[in-house]
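Lab notebook page, bench 4
Experiment: in silico fold of construct C2
Operator: M.H.
Input chain length: 588 residues
Purpose: comparison with the prior construct
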Amino acid sequence: MTVDPSQPNKIRTQLISFVIGAFQSLDSGLVRKECAPLVGISIWHNLHSESVRDRYFEEHQMLRKAWRATSKRFDAADEALQTRLRFERSWLYTLMIEFIDRLYNDSTRAAAKDTLAYCERFMELLTDLQSQLPTRRYVNALLRDLNLLPAIRLSPIYTDEDNGLFRDLCNLLDHFSHFPIEDQTGRQLSKLEYDQQHYDVLAKLQRTGYAVFQEKLQLMALANYGSIGNREELDGHLRALSDDELVQLCSLMGLRTEYQSATFLVRDRMFYIEALVALTEQRPTFKDNVRDMSLLPTEKILYETSFLRNESYDGSRPLAIPKLNLQYLTMGDFLWRSFTLYRAESFYGIRKDMETAVKKMQPRGKGVDTRFNSFSRMALPIMKPAVVDVAPSRVGENHPAYVRAEIILDVSRLQVPVRREWEQLRPDDVVFLLAVEGKEDAPMKNGTHNERTTGEELGLHKLRCAQVVQVQDENGKPLRDQAHADGFAPRARQRHLIVNIDAKQYKLDMDHAAEGRPNVYEHINLIVRRKGRENNFLPILESIKRLTLSDIPAPTWLQEVFLGYGDPASATYKRLPNRLHAIDFRDT
């Protein structure tokens, strides 16, 4: 039914959802028996040439055995079984070819909404197949062979501005397709091995280009790897080739250049260049991405469309976030998914708390005239923070080691319990500095309820994070708990809060200010804290990040079971190869 073109789009979208559910349930023997043949080695019949297949066989001899076994089984089968085996090996290929046609076919634009829904679901299916080792093993080769990612990136659906979710799903598929892992053995590649693979491809491109088009690609053959791995530079080198020569270079590099004659795929110069670039482009690994991801939110991150889209999830369209599954590719993959999801969850909580605090404070007026008409125990109006020290950056970093600032809190009007809460901020607690403006005249709503989605509409213009270093009294002395033990102390007027502002973001803000944009810190007028129990997101994110960037965070006996492969009983101590058979307790 999934490959039957007479089925209407909506039905086929539902069917693909069902297939996704099936491939998510490979732990059930019944489901696995039905699903496994659809992604077995026999799908390699659809690779575009024998030589590509042989290249995989040379890397792993066991593949050749598996291939011969399936061929023998096919030859020995009767006609009915042969028909079934033929269907099993062509099922995924048929779906992929038809998916590419949908992306480029103008006649399906009439039913654009249904087509988009189907394409999004199909991307989810491909991502699921690529993110589990048993299904990825052979699917990845077919996906690359069809130049699927370049085809998606050049399609009208991808380039349409409204289809943000589709682009996010494509990025997720790209992430898993280029994950640094050995597809057959499931071993995570080190940075060195991953780079070496990439350099081998670049060296092959240089040799092939020089051998066949010596005149035109001489400069490329002499260029360094860093420059050829760069999209713009490679594009510049390939410009010298005519269209036919470009196709010839693609086929020499082992890329598919022949498709079915009936396909809607636009195979123009741009497509072949994109296919070559996709093969040779230098990509950051998931570790590089995690290293660059900010752990402290700003207003831009909190209101990213991908975060907002996840909130209105009703099951009708997929989410472009990694799934917590029964199986993972490697420990690094598990940690990357956990990091991404925990970060999204934390930032959601922070955003809700900030919006609540701003609403309670009821800001009115703009700029310097901003005043607050109400009160919240989690927020205090402040003057702009005074930056007192910017430390020089550490070796290998280009942002200051820390940026220390002093914030004066006016606690004279606070009741004692609330004041105590502010005084009990501990070192390393995260507080939030907001630039808030009021809305002078809210338009009258005639009985309609419209939920605001951006921070600016609520009056939250800027948000920066800071970590508490110390709470001081009016004279600049650190507050000690015993100082306010007796109730006869004079009423406190001010408290000085010493904080470290997010240094990476401070560097960016100062660079922007140097270009003539307004200085964010001049406009900050509100400080917000969160309850201690909910506000522990930073140490958790830092821990996951540190583990993700380290190499092997799990012992070998646990690794396979944890990733959802091996037999769970194999992790019991009785089965361990190095277990102790006797312990001498001496005189214990």
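Observations: The radius of gyration is 30 Å. The mean pLDDT is 87.
Next step: discuss at group meeting.
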